[in-house]
Specification:
Length: about 300
């Protein structure tokens, strides 16, 4: 503040801050060294009048600048689990007077469980981030300008949970086909949206050729299929929900090969014993056979 007059008489002060605000820390318009909080940023013409004990006075006016804060903003579209979130930084400079250089600091709200991708990091303007799991995260962006003024914004960012593909199919004998496949709940578990698409691939290994019977197809929640060959067949199911999130699974089903019935007979005269020789073959995996004769 100002010096006293040459003879050292006491001074009194009268401040005019040039704009709306409040005095803080127990100061006021007559304090020697006031502290003032303006209601808005901008340039203000501040006037100080000093008066000594002889009622002599002096006046000085000078410009004071209250720096405007940067304006943080961003957007991030919802994504499916295990997909990266792309952040579009929409932050802008504050109004005059403000500094044109901006720096950024991101807090993804997940305690650091996820990871930055594509060489980006927490200080990049437009980071790419893979959250560890599906959830809604309160992401905070702090923007700091060259005047060391900073401002933050927190926006919820959503990662949708994927569906969990699954189906039930009971192993069947070759002649008892078609085999039934069921991908309804609880075999398939929905994520954050309803499952709306099912895609079956029966021939995943080149050995699963066959046909869908009338009324069944490869895009139904439940379906039927007849394999052309017995054996173990890996079947793939892909499910997609209304958010476009997807999951797939491959499960083995088995079509049991049929045994081959055959016999020879040693014919005999009435009253003698007829001998039957069973030549039946087991199925290829050699499971035990049981027999039922009707003479």
């Amino acid at each position: 503040n100002s010096d006293t007059d040459p003879i050292g008489s006491a001074l009194s002060y009268s401040w005019n801050m040039g704009g709306a605000g409040i005095y803080v820390n127990v100061t006021n318009a007559t304090s020697e060294d006031p502290e003032y909080r303006y209601n808005a940023c901008g340039a203000y013409l501040v006037t100080l009048i000093i008066i000594d004990g002889n009622t002599c006075n002096d006046t000085i006016s000078d410009s004071v600048y209250v720096y405007c804060l940067p304006i943080p903003d961003f957007e991030a579209d919802p994504v499916c689990e295990n997909s990266p979130t792309l952040f579009n930084n929409l932050s802008t400079l504050g109004n005059y007077p403000s500094d044109p250089s901006l720096s950024y600091l991101w807090n993804m709200g997940d305690g650091g469980a996820g990871q930055y991708l594509s060489g980006t990091g927490p200080t990049d303007p437009h980071p790419e981030y893979l959250f560890d799991t599906c959830d809604t995260y309160n992401v905070t962006l702090t923007v700091t300008d060259g005047n060391n003024c900073d401002s933050s914004i927190t926006i919820p960012v959503t990662v949708w949970c994927n569906p969990q593909a699954g189906f039930y199919a009971e192993d069947d004998c070759f002649d008892d086909q078609p085999m039934d496949f069921d991908a309804s709940s609880p075999n398939t578990i929905a994520g954050d949206a309803n499952v709306s698409s099912w895609i079956w691939t029966m021939n995943t290994d080149g050995n699963g050729t066959g046909t869908y019977p009338p009324g069944s197809d490869s895009t139904s929640e439940t379906t039927q299929y007849s394999f052309d060959s017995c054996g173990i067949h890996p079947v793939k199911l892909l499910v997609i929900d209304d958010n476009g999130c997807r999951d797939s699974t491959i499960q083995n089903v088995e079509v049991y090969c049929e045994p081959t019935a055959d016999f020879d007979v040693i014919e005999a005269c009435l009253g003698d014993t007829t001998i039957f020789i069973n030549n039946s073959d087991t199925d290829p995996i050699g499971s035990a056979l049981s027999y039922s004769w009707n003479m």
